[in-house]
Design goal:
alpha+beta; five-stranded antiparallel sheet; five-stranded mixed sheet; binds adenosine-5'-diphosphate; binds magnesium ion
C-alpha cells in the first residue's frame, strides 16, 4: 500500500508547445486519481472476496469497516455497530456465560499486542455463539496507536472434528483399559506359578512382559486423563499433606527406575499443602521421568522444594538435551512433542506436561520451564500452602483470564 508518489513525469512534447503549469498539474492529478482508483478497486476486490471476516477498528475499539464475510457471519451491518466497541458486540461474555471485560481485541488495543490464531467464542446478532480463530494486528502511525485490524474465521466445523477425535480417544482408551487390566492379572498369576516351580527363565520373561503392560497401562491412563480434562471430569480429592514427604517417597520410587541417574533432593522445611496427593504425585512423576528420559548423557537430577509466605515452589532440574527457547511455550500443550533430529529416539505421546499443567492450575498453582538447549531444563511448579489453598473449578483453570 505504501507507495511513494514521485514527481510527475514530464510529458513528451515538441519544444514549440511547452505545457503550462496548469496542464502539467492537471495531468498529474488525473494520474494520481487513476492510481487511487486502481488501488481502491484492488483493496475492495480482496476484502469483498476474502472468506475470513475482516474488521478495521479505531483507537476506541469501534468498527470503521467490515467486509461482506463479516456481515454474513455475524449478521450485523456496520451502521448497527459502529458506535460501540466491537469487543462489546462480538464478545460480551465468555463461553460459560460469564461477562467478559476483555478479549484479544482489547489486548491488542490496550497493550499494542499482536495476536495470531487465538481461539475464542464470538456472538452473532441473533445471540448464538460460534467458535472463532482470530488474529488482531495493532496499527500505528508515527509511533501512535490508531486502531487495529481484526481477522477471524468461524471454526465450528474444525471444532466438531476435534470433538469427534476426542470422543474417539475417550472410547478407544476406555475399551483398551479392560483387556490390559486382565492381562496384568493373568501375568501376575502365571508369574507366581512359575516362581513356585522354580522356572527362573519364565519368571524373568514374565517380569519383562509385566513392565511392558505397565507402560501400556500408563499410556492408556494418560489418554483417559486427557478425556477427563476435556470433558471437565478430572476429579480431585483434597487433603492436607506434607509435600516434602511426598517428594521423598516419589524420588525413592523413581530412583529404582534408573541406574544411570542420581536423584538428589534439596528440601527445606515441612511444606504442608492442601491438594490432591495422588495428582500432585502424578505431576512429580511426570517431571522426574521427563528429566530422566531427556538427559540420557548426564547423571544428575536435582529436586528442590522451597516454601515462601503463601506458597511452596518445587523444581526438577536436569542437565540433558534442553528445549529451544522458541519451543518452551508449547511443551504444556496437548500432544506437544518437540521435534528435531535428536528427538526421534525418545518415545512418548506428548501428554504428561499437558496433564501436569492442568492439574497444577486446578490446584491453584503455576507451572513453567526454564531451559537452555544442550544444557538442561528446570521445570517449576508452585502450590499454595495449606492455609491459602482452594481448588479451582475446571472453567477457572482454562486460562480464561488471558482472553
Ligand atoms: N526435561 C526435559 N528436557 C527436554 N525436553 C523436555 C523435557 N520435558 C519435556 N520435554 C519436551 O516436551 C515434550 C512434552 O513432554 P511430555 O508432555 O512429558 O510428553 P512426552 O514426554 O510423552 O513426549 C517432550 O516431547 C519433549 O520434547
Ligand atoms: Mg513425558
Amino acid at each position: 500500500m505504501a507507495q511513494t508518489l514521485s514527481q510527475p513525469p514530464m510529458p513528451k512534447r515538441r519544444a514549440s508547445e511547452a505545457p503550462s503549469i496548469d496542464t502539467m498539474l492537471e495531468e498529474y492529478l488525473s494520474k494520481l486519481e487513476q492510481k487511487v482508483l486502481t488501488q481502491t478497486m484492488q483493496l475492495q476486490a480482496i476484502t469483498d472476496n476474502a472468506s475470513s471476516c475482516l474488521f478495521l477498528i479505531d483507537d476506541l475499539g469501534r468498527a470503521t469497516f467490515m467486509n461482506p464475510s463479516a456481515q454474513r457471519i455475524t449478521g450485523y451491518a456496520l451502521e448497527e455497530i459502529h458506535d460501540q466497541p466491537l469487543h462489546r458486540v462480538l464478545h460480551p461474555k465468555h463461553a460459560d456465560g460469564e461477562p467478559a471485560d476483555r478479549c484479544w481485541i482489547s489486548l491488542a488495543l490496550e497493550k499494542f499486542r499482536l495476536v495470531r490464531d487465538r481461539e475464542d467464542v464470538f456472538y452473532r446478532k441473533d445471540g448464538t455463539a460460534f467458535p472463532a480463530s482470530c488474529s488482531v494486528a495493532p496499527l500505528e502511525r508515527e509511533g501512535h496507536p490508531w486502531g487495529a485490524v481484526l481477522e477471524f474465521q468461524d471454526i465450528t466445523q474444525r471444532k466438531e472434528l476435534e470433538r469427534q477425535k476426542d470422543d474417539f480417544i475417550g472410547v478407544a482408551s476406555h475399551e483398551l483399559k479392560t483387556p490390559v487390566t486382565s492381562m496384568k492379572t493373568y501375568t501376575q498369576v502365571l508369574q507366581r506359578q512359575f516362581q513356585q516351580r522354580g522356572d527362573i527363565k519364565a519368571v524373568e520373561s514374565l517380569t519383562k512382559i509385566n513392565a511392558q503392560i505397565e507402560r501400556l497401562s500408563a499410556l492408556i491412563s494418560d489418554l483417559l486423563d486427557v478425556t477427563r480434562i476435556q470433558t471437565g471430569n478430572l476429579s480431585f480429592q483434597t487433603e492436607e499433606f506434607s509435600l516434602v514427604t511426598l517428594i521423598e517417597e516419589i524420588t525413592e520410587t523413581m530412583q529404582l527406575t534408573t541406574d544411570r541417574h542420581h536423584l538428589e533432593v534439596d528440601l527445606s522445611g515441612q511444606s504442608s499443602v492442601r491438594a490432591d496427593r495422588d495428582r500432585t504425585g502424578q505431576v512429580l512423576i511426570n517431571l522426574i521421568s521427563n528429566a530422566i528420559k531427556y538427559s540420557p548423557h548426564s547423571d544428575r537430577i536435582i529436586i528442590r522444594a522451597q516454601s515462601g509466605a503463601s506458597e511452596v515452589m518445587v523444581s526438577v532440574q536436569d542437565f540433558g538435551i534442553g528445549i529451544p527457547a522458541e519451543k518452551q511455550d508449547q511443551v504444556f500443550e496437548r500432544f506437544s512433542r518437540i521435534s528435531g533430529p535428536r528427538m526421534e529416539t525418545f518415545p512418548g505421546l506428548g501428554l504428561g506436561l499437558y496433564i501436569s499443567a492442568q492439574i497444577i492450575r486446578r490446584l491453584g498453582g503455576r507451572i513453567w520451564v526454564d531451559s537452555a538447549e544442550g544444557q538442561g531444563s528446570t521445570f517449576y511448579f508452585t502450590l499454595p500452602l495449606a492455609t491459602t489453598a482452594t481448588v479451582k473449578r475446571p472453567a477457572d483453570a482454562t486460562g480464561k483470564e488471558e482472553g
